[in-house]
Design goal:
alpha/beta; D-Maltodextrin-Binding Protein, domain 2; 2 domains; five-stranded mixed β-sheet; three-stranded antiparallel β-sheet; 10 strands; 49% helix
């Protein structure tokens, strides 16, 4: 009897500590720099705009873990990418029109999962082909099509995922009729840009918001045939959370379109390359955009 009494008492004490879960927004993120920056941005911004307490649950892992955390109610919101949501979660074919992808993801997430897909934050974190600045300048190359006549002299370096994905290597060479000087070297993502700088390879596939693009003399070749699908960053929120806290919906709508690709790349650079504190970097960014008023 005494043991049962103390168990109940302790449970009551723990439940009464801190704010009620109904007054807390839990923000999640995947386990890489850009995601932690975006998670921290949502956390600071939502707290400031709504007055709600915010709990951070970052470094959750990949897409599937974040999705399950949303469905289980362990988090209320995190930032996803539309192309990933379409293919990885919804198992839909690759599409290349940004508006169509967004609308399909928004509709299917609502009907299948009872989740709201908010308007895009403003940047598209998609695959990009990258060459050294000297290469682009010497041959006057700014687009992938302009690179085609020179590619037969190039040594490409790509990550394993890019080689295997349906929106990766095979479709790219088919769309642009690309022929490289030798088969692609399959490399760890962390080594791609170093290999490009050291002239071990001549072209790599990166992501448009990679921090390295901010720090070195690299040129992103424009995807002039729009081969790569859109990966617009969008907050995904539990519909139940929005119904309980309408201010969250209003706040996230105001955040739409506020982060450009160049700005996201610079934020990644400040955290990943300059090793600055994420909270401070985000605070400065929100202040610069007058989003902390």
């Amino acid at each position: 009897m005494k043991r049962a009494f103390w168990t109940i008492l302790l449970a009551t004490l723990f439940c009464s500590c801190g704010p009620s879960r109904s007054h807390v927004i839990v923000v999640g993120s995947k386990n890489f720099t850009e995601q932690v920056i975006l998670g921290e941005m949502l956390a600071q911004y939502l707290h400031h705009q709504t007055g709600l307490q915010v709990e951070r649950r970052f470094y959750l892992g990949g897409t599937y873990i974040c999705q399950q955390a949303l469905l289980a109610g362990r988090i209320d919101v995190y930032v996803e990418y539309t192309g990933t949501a379409l293919t990885a979660i919804l198992k839909q074919p690759v599409e290349h029109n940004a508006e169509d992808v967004y609308n399909k993801v928004k509709t299917l997430y609502a009907t299948r999962f009872n989740l709201d897909v908010m308007p895009p934050l403003g940047f598209n974190d998609t695959f990009v082909l990258v060459v050294r600045g000297e290469t682009a300048k010497k041959d006057h190359i700014r687009t992938i099509s302009q690179a085609v006549p020179y590619a037969h002299h190039w040594r490409p370096g790509f990550g394993y995922e890019f080689m295997e994905r349906q929106d990766g290597y095979n479709g790219l060479v088919k769309t642009y009729h690309l022929k490289f000087g030798e088969p692609p070297r399959i490399m760890d993502l962390g080594l791609l840009y170093r290999a490009l700088l050291d002239k071990q390879v001549d072209v790599v596939a990166g992501n448009s918001t990679d921090a390295q693009l901010e720090a070195q003399d690299f040129v992103v070749l424009r995807d002039n045939k729009h081969y790569f699908p859109p990966y617009q960053a969008v907050p995904i929120v539990r519909t139940k959370t929005l119904s309980e806290h309408p201010a969250v919906y209003a706040a996230l709508e105001q955040l739409a379109g506020k982060i450009s690709g160049a700005e996201m790349r610079h934020l990644n650079y400040e955290v990943a390359a300059q090793h600055r504190d994420v909270k401070q970097v985000v605070q400065e960014f929100l202040r610069s955009k007058h989003l902390d008023d």
